[in-house]
Specification:
ten-stranded mixed β-sheet, single chain, 404 residues, alpha/beta, globular
């Protein structure tokens, strides 16, 4: 029988072996510790907090070919209290073994708590020496944090692992997701001139079976989905936007790896392009109390699909497509700027850039930056080059049109 454990368990096995060899006085067997891999934080109607601690059930974390346990790979323990810390301790009391946090992967914070403030929600984790500050943080939307952490998915037996993989994959492949770590969030909030934006996670359908093993037996299981972006002013949730609104943030911080974009370039003609590389530069200054903000974006893309009759004979034929992709990206960025100006939350980090480029100006305007940002004049330039049209020069519709 071959048993395959997750990457985290391989690390744990090595740690345990080293501890045994070294004969450490505080050594404990793996089966004497509850390894916490996820935490969900919710606020109840009575004003108290509920903490859900997700721990691994080692006997059921096996490969599909093994004959391990038939139960879930995780176990969730809940505690309730007047503070988040008290709620966490109440959950500890229900554990059969001491909790261990070095392998904590994600903290899911409910929308209600996010509106109260992220700093208070994360203070316990920031103080706890066993918690890695590189632990990811995400926010639930229109769903409790515990329901997100509770959803079982067939491709990954551990919900915390599945959620992390989903967030990382959507950012890497589609450029439309963003999760920040505990340390990043605290740093963003403490630094002047930049605010926090985090992808939100929701359940597409309110089904009671998301945490049941029966959900794994469905051809279309209910699983958490990235449904939008939460925008914060200082550390409090101020507004939410759906779909791909996070892409301009990734572009602004040069964190976008890849993305897909669809644009209309002629009547009844559409192109879907894959953005291969996108880099941006921000420029800021203040004149007569008015901030002037500029963003230059350059990138390379390739054509994935053309809908409509169109042929690509030479570079000149690419220009309308390049232009429409540029306009689509520009529209997204301008829309993002307008949204963040409305709520006085400088998510794109123009204030931070002003502090680098013009320290003396930032010194004068730092305290009033939120109100100044709201009336800033903005300018966006986008330059996209189509690297390749793929393996064909004509669209399928064009070739069919020629034969008729």
């Amino acid at each position: 029988m071959i048993v395959t454990f997750s990457k985290g368990f391989k690390v744990l096995a090595i740690i345990s072996l080293c501890s045994f060899i070294a004969a450490c006085s505080d050594y404990k067997e793996v089966n004497q510790i509850s390894f916490a891999i996820g935490v969900a934080l919710d606020k109840e109607k009575d004003g108290t907090y509920k903490a859900t601690l997700q721990v691994v059930n080692p006997s059921n974390v096996t490969s599909a070919s093994s004959t391990g346990g038939q139960g879930p790979a995780i176990l969730n323990y809940q505690g309730q209290g007047r503070t988040i810390g008290e709620a966490m301790w109440k959950s500890f009391e229900k554990l059969p073994r001491p909790a261990s946090f070095p392998h904590l992967e994600i903290v899911v914070i409910s929308e209600e708590i996010a509106k109260e403030g992220l700093l208070n929600a994360l203070e316990l984790f920031d103080r706890e020496p066993d918690v890695r500050l590189s632990t990811a943080v995400t926010v639930s939307h229109n769903a409790s944090a515990r329901s997100i952490l509770n959803a079982l998915t067939p491709l990954n037996k551990i919900p915390s692992n599945s959620l992390i993989s989903n967030l990382e994959n959507i950012k890497k492949v589609a450029g439309t997701g963003q999760s920040l770590t505990i340390s990043q969030i605290i740093q963003y909030i403490k630094d002047d001139g930049q605010e926090v934006a985090i992808s939100t996670v929701a359940l597409p359908k309110k089904q009671k079976s998301t945490g049941d093993l029966s959900n794994l037996e469905k051809a279309s299981p209910t699983s958490p989905e990235i449904d939008g972006t939460a925008f914060f002013k200082e550390d409090k949730w101020v507004t939410w936007s759906k779909n791909h609104e996070i892409r301009p943030v990734l572009i602004a911080y040069n964190e976008m790896k890849s993305s897909y974009i669809t644009a209309s370039f002629e009547k009844q003609k559409f192109v879907t392009a894959r953005l291969l590389t996108v880099k941006s530069k921000k420029y800021t200054t203040v004149k007569d109390g008015i901030p002037y903000l500029k963003m230059d974006v350059k990138g390379i893309a390739e054509i994935e699909e053309i809908k409509g009759l169109y042929t690509l004979e030479n570079d000149k034929d690419l220009q309308p497509i390049e232009k429409c992709v540029e306009e689509e990206i520009k529209k997204e960025i301008k829309k993002m700027i307008a949204l963040t100006q409305k709520y006085q939350t400088d998510t794109l980090g123009f204030g931070k850039q002003l502090s680098f480029q013009h320290p003396s100006q930032w010194k004068n305007y730092r305290k009033s930056w939120s109100s100044l940002y709201q009336k800033a004049q903005t300018e966006v330039h986008v330059d996209i080059s189509i690297k390749t049209a793929g393996s064909r020069t004509h669209s399928n519709q064009f070739q069919r049109g020629e034969t008729q």
